[in-house]
Specification:
Layout (H helix, E strand, L loop, with lengths): L1 H21 L5 E5 L9 E7 L4 E8 L2 E12 L2 E6 L2 E11 L2 E6 L5 E6 L2
Antiparallel strand pairs: 1-2, 1-8, 2-3, 3-4, 4-5, 5-6, 6-7, 7-8
């Protein structure tokens, strides 16, 4: 009985966490259109998974590398924390199959298009 109750509680917690993450408008795969002149870095492609993880092709000038990590959303803000990059906070505005990420520090932005 104790095992059944523990399992039920765990499933309830996981389902609540999943509902919160999947409700984020950034969940999905995106393709960036920013150039290195528009931001300190840009995404070639990025996937935001419902579990709060992301994988991305990040472009820093002429250098491209794969980055993965975790993201959190709060209102219209998203925080990315990944391998080899300090946490970054962006203001995000989403529209029909687009998302504009604005760097809170520099005010520069990059536009992402939802991959179909």
């Amino acid at each position: 009985m104790r095992h059944v109750l523990s399992s039920a509680v765990l499933l309830g917690i996981l389902s609540l966490a999943g509902c919160n993450a999947t409700s984020s408008p950034v969940v999905g795969t995106w393709e960036g259109r920013a150039t290195s002149d528009e931001a300190p870095f840009s995404f070639g492609a990025v996937t935001f998974a419902p579990d709060g993880t992301f994988t991305a092709e990040a472009k820093y000038g002429d250098t491209t590398r794969a980055v993965s990590g975790r993201y959190t959303t709060e209102g219209e803000k998203i925080t990315l924390a990944g391998q080899g990059i300090p946490p970054r906070v962006y203001q995000v505005s989403t529209g029909d199959d687009t998302a504009v990420f604005t760097d809170q520090t520099t005010g520069r932005s990059m536009t992402l298009d939802r991959f179909k």
